[in-house]
């Protein structure tokens, strides 16, 4: 059985670490309360530890980071308010690291929305229990922490977005690049492998390659060739659904990931794209065509193998005369290996 490697995202690692650290931080306090007979408080803390640990486990299993980071934050904030009221306002000191953790886990806007009611709930207690000067200093320090966390979180997000753009998008066409394709295929493959309900995680790849692009470049020039790649990208982005993803795999090769679609449905989409390319005037007075290979996700397979099956189907389409769609049928165990190797040898000699 092949071993499927799972590459965890930074977000997953952050949430799992935050849940472990939170659970381990609160647990000794729960034990301490229990030993001192504060059973109610110990119970709240144990429940918080269990929920927080479950959230970490959920991320590990489902790889969802959006809902789990929000849930983790809500639990921490609810625990903070509950313990402040159950013990006393000495617990308020935990507000500072919790504000930072919430901003660390969520967007600045979401964090502000979660923190506003929490702080409003804590203020009456602080007002009642603290002297005016203590209340004022708590208020000022919380506001400073909030402003600082908010500004830093927004700045990090801006820089992160810019960096993600550079890392994940192709500079010429603006399509997603090969690096993000590799990550995405890995994720889809591992989700498909892990989930029992396979039907909901089905996906297919359409890999296509512009026909005779070298000749187009040689006759019309490289800049005109670039225009074709740019126009083709615009064209296809308008054709596919919001849930589909479009990538430039390299050179004149592109990939569409069709989420929730089987081999035959994706084959139909590939045929639509093929006809659209042929009929669109991507460059004046020139008919551009492309050849397609389509492969459906299958279990117990490395993601690169999934793409390689589409690649083999694409080469068969090229060999059969180009400007056509071929499907990689997972059930049909025909050995295309030799044909594929011969074709590659032939290509490298040309
Ligand atoms: N204009 C332009 N050309 C590119 C770019 N990237 C790769 N190419 C060219 O794409 C051409 C690909 O040539 P081949 O791999 O021989 O493929 P082909 O001519 O399309 O032939 P078939 O695949 O057999 O149809 C090469 O001439 C590359 O220089 C690019 O970003 N812009």
Tell me what the structure shows.
- There is one protein chain.
- By secondary structure, the protein is α+β, with helices and mostly antiparallel strands.
- It has two domains: 10-168, no CATH class; 178-349, Reverse transcriptase/Diguanylate cyclase domain (Alpha-Beta Plaits), CATH 3.30.70.
- Helix content is 66%, strand content 9%.
- The protein is built from twelve helices and five strands.
- It has a five-stranded mixed sheet, with helices on both faces.
- The longest helix has 37 residues, at 132-168.
- Bound molecules: guanosine-5'-triphosphate.
Summarize the structure.
This is diguanylate cyclase. By secondary structure, the chain is of the alpha+beta class.
């Amino acid at each position: 059985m092949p071993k499927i490697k799972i590459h965890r995202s930074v977000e997953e690692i952050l949430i799992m670490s935050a849940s472990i650290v939170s659970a381990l931080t609160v647990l000794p306090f729960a034990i301490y309360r229990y030993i001192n007979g504060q059973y109610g408080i110990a119970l709240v803390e144990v429940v918080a530890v269990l929920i927080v640990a479950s959230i970490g486990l959920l991320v590990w299993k489902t790889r969802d980071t959006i809902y789990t980071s929000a849930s983790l934050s809500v639990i921490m904030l609810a625990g903070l308010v509950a313990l402040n009221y159950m013990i006393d306002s000495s617990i308020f000191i935990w507000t500072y690291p919790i504000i930072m953790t919430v901003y660390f886990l969520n967007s600045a806007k979401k964090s502000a929305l979660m923190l506003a009611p929490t702080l409003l709930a804590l203020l009456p207690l602080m007002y009642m229990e603290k002297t005016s000067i203590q209340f004022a200093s708590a208020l000022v320090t919380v506001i400073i922490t909030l402003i600082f966390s908010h500004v830093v979180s927004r700045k990090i997000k801006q820089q992160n977005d810019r960096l993600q753009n550079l890392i994940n998008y192709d500079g010429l066409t603006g399509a997603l690049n090969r690096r993000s394709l590799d990550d995405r295929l890995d994720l889809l493959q591992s989700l498909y492998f892990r989930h029992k309900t396979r039907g909901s995680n089905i996906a297919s790849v359409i890999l296509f390659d512009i026909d005779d692009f070298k000749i187009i470049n040689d006759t019309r020039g490289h800049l005109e060739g670039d225009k074709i790649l740019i126009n083709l990208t615009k064209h296809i982005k308008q054709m596919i659904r919001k849930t589909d993803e479009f990538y430039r795999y390299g050179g004149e090769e592109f990939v569409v990931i069709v989420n929730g679609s089987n081999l035959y449905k994706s084959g139909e989409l590939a045929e639509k794209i093929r006809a659209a390319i042929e009929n669109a005037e991507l460059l004046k007075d020139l008919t551009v065509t492309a050849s397609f290979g389509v492969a459906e996700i299958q279990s117990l397979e490395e993601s690169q193998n999934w793409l390689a099956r589409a690649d083999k189907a694409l080469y068969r389409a090229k060999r059969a005369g180009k400007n056509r769609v071929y499907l990689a049928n997972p059930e049909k165990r025909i050995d295309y290996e030799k044909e594929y190797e011969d074709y590659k040898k032939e290509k490298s000699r040309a």
